[in-house]
Amino acid sequence: MFTPETKLRGAAVTAALAAALVGLGAGTAGAAGWPPLQPGARLYSSTYGQGFATTVDLTDLGTCHTLWPGARSVQIANGGATLALYAEADCNGPGWLSGTLAQANLPRTALSYRVLQA
Predict the structure, then answer these.
(1) Is the distance from CB of 54 to CB of 67 less than 8 angstroms?
(2) Tens digit of pLDDT for each residue in 19-73?
(3) What keywords are assigned to this protein (predicted)?
(4) Contact (Cβ atoms closer than 8 angstroms) between residue 24 and residue 16
(5) Rounded to an integer, what distance in angstroms lies between the CA atom of residue 74 and that of residue 47?
(6) Which residues contact 70 (CB under 8 A, 6 or more apart)?
(7) Which domains, from first to last, does the chain contain?
């Protein structure tokens, strides 16, 4: 049986986590005009999640995909996969890793990507 102290501690942890997630979404998405963060991964041809959207198949691990048009921003919400994005076609050139929860403008246009296990 849970004691009142245990219930309060659990409620506090839940409230802190909810506030952090709301702050992440509101601070980034609200200020920049990002589309709502959804499960999965999307690459966008413009910054701040705008322009042409490419939906990424997160189950296709390791395959190199060339993008047309190139990607300037990324959104990913997935606990099991991350994206490796590359400045050149055929997964060459400078790379950038997304992490499993990201909403970011890329430092340079990505022309290819591959899905990696997190």
Answers:
(1) yes
(2) 333 344 433 334 458 999 999 999 999 999 999 999 999 999 999 999 999 999 9
(3) Signal
(4) no
(5) 9
(6) 45, 109, 110, 111
(7) 40-117 (2.60.20.10)
